[in-house]
Amino acid sequence: MALKRPKADAVIIGLGWAGSLMANELTMAGLNVVAIERGGWRDTSTDFPTSMDTDELRYATRRELLQPLSVETMSFRNNPGQQARPLRDFNTYQFGWGAGGAGSHWNGMTWRFLPNDFQTYSNTVAKYGKGRFVTGLTVQDWGVTYDDLEPFYDKFERYAGTSGKAGNIKGVIQPGGNVFEGARQRDYPLPPLERTRAAELFDIGAKELGLHSFPVPAGNTSGAYVNPLGIHMAPCTYCGYCEFFGCGNWSKSSPNACILPALIQRPNFTVITESEVMKVNLTPDKKMATGVTYIDKQGREWEQPADIVVISAYQMDNVRLMLLSGIGKPYDRASLTGVVGRNYANQTVSGAGVFFENENLNPFIGAGALAQSADDYNSDNFDHAKLDFIGGANMLIHSTNGRPIGSANVVPPGTPRWGSEWKKTYKDSYQVGNSIYNQGNSYPHEDVFLDLDPTYTDRFGRPLLRVTFDWNENDKRSGHFMADRAVEFGHAMNAKMVFRNEPTAKHFSPMDNLSSHTTGGAIMGDDPMTSAVNRYLQSWDVPNTFVCGASAFANNGGYNPTGTVGALTLWAAEAIKTKYLKSPGALVSL
Amino acid sequence: MTSPILRRDLLGTAAALVGTAATLPAAEAAQISGSLPWSPSEGTPPPVEPTQPYTWEFFTADEAALVGAIADRIIPADDLSIGGKEAGCAVFIDKQLAGNYGKGTNYYLKGPYRPGTPQQGPQTLETFAQRYREGLAALVAFCASKHGGAAFTTLSAADQDALLHEMEAGAFYTGPVTSTAFFNQLIQNVREGYFADPIYGGNKDMAGWKLIGFPGARYDYRDVIGRRGEKLDLEPVGLMGRPGWNPA
Q1: A480 flagged as catalytic
Q2: How confident is the model at residue B7 (pLDDT cuts 50, 70, 90)?
Q3: Between the N and C ends of chain B, which has fewer C-beta atoms within 10 Å?
């Protein structure tokens, strides 16, 4: 029989960005909160000191901060006709592990999604007609709008210490920022990061093509900053060890730097580390959650009773926990019914390799989100009337690192992979090579979904999550169009060599490491027949369970997801504080 | 915003520190004069240079010689830099295979084994250490069959390259997969040995970093980021510093 802990007001599964933000809000509201984290405690100064952080092999190549695959991996197949196989080697899906979650080792690009991203269905129907959706696409509105979320994006940027330049303050366009962004109430808390030579070259290309260049909003601090919790952040040093690394310099927006130092001191907060939640426990009628069951480091089974359950693990694990707990009806591809596992999306990646002549890009000077970008071809920022797809991509050039193991493939295609010719080409390319990277909208399709694997299991013998994904026709058209734009951009920057990159032209593979930005599977919406949670991230079926994370995205934007994960979590926390606590029950009545 | 709890905790900590200082035993007092009381790299792990002769932890002597010879073809010695063998790539791989990487601690190696599509990635259940043992043995046998029993290490560079090209193209099997998979593994691990921090046993004298102009384990470029497009010629630094920091 399970050991039993005292009842909490709320139990939070997973202490990444979503879990930390939710715990912060609920404890400030006076609730007694217990978080359960699968990995260990991680502290900015002692776990990520700058004297040992700059180690490419340990963190980037061996991915030491990521959740080990021996703990849990996914199985993968391209289509429902195939048998899935487990992903045995590190790949594009990058789960967090430890307090801070993936928020410890992300790069920090802190975007707000565009207003159109939340209402793509309605806007597309109004502007281009229903016929614009390719067969099988399951695009639907989110149930929230950009305007609903704006105050919460603002709040997240303040907690995180985001560096950037506004493009639209209260409807007034700000040159030098992203002129396509939705109206914001004020500028970022910190100015943009320093510029690199790569950014200058990008600006040359953008000017030539008439595009609007701006610095990517960065979760890397451009200067000293004190956030609303009183936590001091220090200026980023452009060390070039960001993605896959922790930041011991207090310069990366992370739960470890921005939230946990304040949260951990509150007497009404407890985190139980190195303990994995097995399932959310439900009442016999499955209408309410009673808490969670977890297994601690010693292998003992515990029950943590709670009035509110917040599922805030990685996007995929949110879906898996719902399936393992029996919350919501699982998606069934054959009948096209059910909601849990539905509307999974990834990121439609394309681009171009660019190699210059007589340049010193000094790629080792970088930060995770140090990038120059153009949004002219993202979402519906351009007219699709004469095109046969929806969406597009943000285009950027990234000054993030020049780490030598990971850069060894940054050579012109056709270069031998070994021998003196590779060596000379790598040496010659190191200072002149980069790429235009397009991260594109990804729209859900009925053939793309998440469910439980029938064969492969995790360390506790529970089924792995099975990912069924390949590019849909809209992805392929959009990827092809955007690869053309990247090639065009490369030439406009006066690159000596430009190499087209169109991954959507072949089958998707997680082993290609294109993007870790997975979304959906437990999406929000207005209709319980097509969404797993309502507009407040509250389960339609189990109203004292909230599911926070990118799992709620009804589609993916042409951006990194974290800014929107933060905004949605704070929006849900506000609803819990101001609505749910006053009157526990369904926040949306049908 | 400072919570009352935070303030109380800080006061408590300060009081505790005062108490500690007042009760320090007299024997721990020290007089410091004339120079700082430390030496470079004091208190850090043992020296980077592996003991000579290096004692192989995983490889047999023959395997080590073979891996060294392969490393010298993947990254040959030439007028740009030293080769993979001299840089310590075999030592690096030996240490990796003897540790958690070799054991596959962080990888998913649970059965059942079933072959998959290329998109599903490698499916072998063997650890990296097992893959090396089996892959090197298969290469030895392949080499012997092509060269009248001769060892790889005795072949000319041109013959070694020819053999490795065949291996890369999948000329033989290691376990259930073609030799291409193991060759890809060799390329990756040799590159790691050549470019990882010298604390791992390779990248001798930071030769890999000097080759491409990578400044190494530095963590602060604020003083030079404004020099956009300039050739900076920053001398590399490792996690253990660099020779210039430790005068003989």
Answers
A1: no
A2: very low
A3: C
